[in-house]
Design brief:
The chain is α/β, with parallel strands linked by helices and 425 residues long. Among the domains are: 226 residues, no CATH class; 53 residues, no CATH class. The radius of gyration is 21 Å and the shape is globular.
Length: 425
């Protein structure tokens, strides 16, 4: 990966912003973020030492166009979808009935041009702030592609929105993707995304997703992450929930390369509710560290975390589950479960539960374990004539099944199952 000279960073950011016809506020945000990068610290991911990972290398293609779209497999069973190859949107489908209701589902730069006030209202304002840490500032400055989904007040969409994001590692660009999902009052919908990589070159990915749910909104957000073995990745997915809104996450972390991930939900409004389900597989010499946090700011808010992971070979997988009930959040509920299944003596797994309780009259609990496949389950299956290898796969499928079942699209569920099978064979 050929890095861009630091002396050219500012000029490249300005030229890219002008080329994309960004408004002045967007360029100003980029420049403020760029000025903060060196002053801010890296985010703390417990038991993860990623300081030397090349997460902030700006390769020469970062702001250049790539017109090669070969090898992209388009989904064929979604009525509303967006497909992006690198920085380019190569397919965008939204039924006229939804357009007439005010639904917006398009690339981020088009949304900024055509719906600037709406984007400005929430972009890096509520869920994720540009100056939180070094990685959020870097992402804000060098973001080069993204998606915007807005569902207006009282609109219920029954068919899932689907997004496919393809990284072309051969083009040598920073894959800096920003997903912004905005659910207005009492809206209801499902969003599914998939990340994948074409090519085997070394690459970096910086991905931030912000989900804003206004009072009464209900969102189901599913993701299958399958970036390549030679891609080092930073994922930051964050929910900002207002009164009586709900956000359910189902995330499959199936990347081939090293990953740090920060999956957070802030329960701001009274009665807000979030369920977070995460599955991950680490193999080879891969290192993955996943922080999943729910912060209960409000009364009667509910946040549940379920994380299951499988590790083999010499890989490392760390789950940090953090439940934080702040002062004033009476009646709040924070529960978490993190379990890691080890298939190798050389693998390393950590499941770290953390509860921070600053209020009385609340419900909180946690469970964590790191261990082997249950011998009793294996014995039962093998006593029924199932070969050992097949029995082990069935146990693992059941172990990961809660997240698989939560993904709404059959083709995505099947793809996740196939990916798990492929990694475990």
């Amino acid at each position: 990966m050929k890095a861009m000279s630091q002396l050219n960073h500012l000029e490249a950011i300005k030229q890219f912003s002008q080329k994309r016809q960004e408004p002045e506020w967007m360029l100003e945000l980029r420049l403020k973020a760029y000025d903060q990068i060196d002053q801010l610290e890296l985010p703390v991911i417990e038991r993860a030492h990623y300081e030397r990972w090349p997460l902030m290398e700006v390769s020469e293609g970062t702001f250049e166009d790539d017109e090669t779209f070969s090898g992209v497999i388009l989904p064929d069973d979604s009525e509303q979808r967006v497909v992006q190859f690198g920085k380019n949107t190569i397919e965008e489908i939204l039924p006229q009935t939804l357009i007439d209701q005010g639904v917006i589902f398009t690339d981020l730069f088009t949304a900024i041009k055509e719906h600037g006030d709406l984007v400005k209202e929430v972009y890096m304002q509520l869920a994720v702030k540009y100056d939180e840490d070094k990685l959020t500032a870097f992402h804000t400055a060098f973001m080069n592609s993204g998606l915007f989904l807005y569902v207006p007040k009282n609109v219920v969409v029954n068919e899932p929105f689907e997004a496919v994001f393809v990284q072309n590692s051969q083009f040598q660009e920073l894959f800096a993707k920003h997903i912004l999902v905005y659910a207005d009052e009492n809206s209801e919908f499902t969003y599914v995304e998939r990340f994948e990589t074409i090519g085997e070159e070394k690459a970096a990915a910086s991905i931030i997703a912000e989900v804003i749910t206004k009072p009464g909104a209900k969102v189901k957000y599913s993701a299958v992450d399958q970036l390549g073995e030679n891609t080092v990745s930073y994922f930051n997915r964050r929910g900002h929930l207002l009164q009586d809104s709900r956000l359910d996450w189902a995330i499959g972390v199936m990347n081939g390369g090293n990953v740090i991930a920060d999956f957070d939900t802030d329960l701001i409004g009274t009665g807000s509710h979030s369920e977070i389900k995460v599955v991950a597989i680490s193999m080879g010499h891969q290192v993955q560290a996943i922080d999943t946090r729910v912060t209960n700011f409000a009364r009667h808010s509910v946040g549940h975390i379920l994380q299951h992971g499988v590790i083999k070979d010499r890989a490392t997988l760390t789950f940090n589950g953090i439940g934080h009930i702040l002062k004033g959040a009476k009646g709040a509920d924070a529960q978490q479960e993190s379990r890691v299944l080890m298939l190798s003596d050389n693998a390393r797994g950590d499941a770290n539960p953390i509860l921070l309780i600053d209020e009385n009259d609340v419900t909180a609990g946690h469970a964590a374990s790191v261990g082997r496949v249950d011998p009793e389950e294996m014995y039962y299956l093998m006593s029924r004539g199932i070969p050992k290898a097949e029995a082990e796969r069935l146990v693992i499928r059941g172990f990961l099944g809660s997240v698989i079942a939560a993904i709404p699209l059959k083709n995505i569920r099947d793809e996740l199952v196939n990916t798990i099978e492929r990694k475990l064979v």
